[in-house]
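Incident log, structure service

09:12 report received: a user says their structure output differs between two submissions of the same chain.
09:20 pulled the input from the user's history:
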Amino acid sequence: MSGTTETSGTATIDSVPGSAEFAARTHGLRKTYGRTVAVSDVDLAVPHGVVLGMLGPNGSGKTTTIRMLLGLTLPTAGTAELLGHAVPEHVDRALPRVGALVEGPGFHPFLSGRENLLRSAATEPELAGSGLRGAVTAALERVGLAAAAGRKYRAYSLGMKQRLGLASALLVPRELVVLDEPTNGLDPAGTREIRQVIADLHAAGTTVVVSSHLLSEVEATCTHAAVLHKGSLVTQGELTTLLESGGPNLVVAASDDVAGLEALRERGIPARRENGALRVELTEVDSPEVIATLVHAGVGVREARRGRADLEDIFAQLTEETS
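09:34 re-ran on a clean worker, output below:
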């Protein structure tokens, strides 16, 4: 895990009561730098076994929140708990069970990827001397770096450096894995591989927290989401519930979507063309009325199904409400 722990701050961190069911939790977490508020009163709850996407644009407070959770940065106010232990007082009890990649990996430029990883492995309490090389080899293979393990770190691309940081986080089995922008610098193939690593961790019961400013990444990899905006937590919960919160709608595959859109708008029914189909809002009408309107206008209906809101639309709506 990269980063250094701050040694100053005025926060008093106590154990968060009633959080045994959570892998990580904060209450009233706040961080200020002078007059700048980086994180404002965040109450975050990460249940065990989920993949939580911490979603927000750059500067929304994601990385600062993660650093406070891991004991790398002291909060100005509020409390935090990691795997049942108060942070930062007892962070040393939790960190051996946590793998983290925060703000990019930090390795020695003149050592090879394997040599850097061997140094990281030597600090793992669970790895005996004889098991170091096997763990390193397995971690390199897991992130697709086996062929480049002998190259100097300074010659690695940004994506390769991200992979090596992920390998360091996965040297031993973890109860919680925290990844800050893990696909940064990766090409599409590398992004797919990281998604598969996250899926494998989830299948094994590991809790994963993924920070990202990419809506597509959260939707593709996560079971839960927490949306941050300007340092505040806007919403959190199951991703499916969040997607269903955008309002009911109907997706219709019509014989003529242009004529169908015109017919619906003539009746005052909100609709738009999307990917060769019609997406119709059901705020003031029901599905049978939509179908009847299209059929009456001579537009054939090949398929109709309930749709869900697009995550991008929901994010825009949530952040606009808090601006």
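09:41 both user submissions now match this output. Likely a transient worker issue. Closing.
09:42 reviewer note: Residues 1-19 have pLDDT under 50 and may be disordered. The first helix runs from residue 62 to 69.
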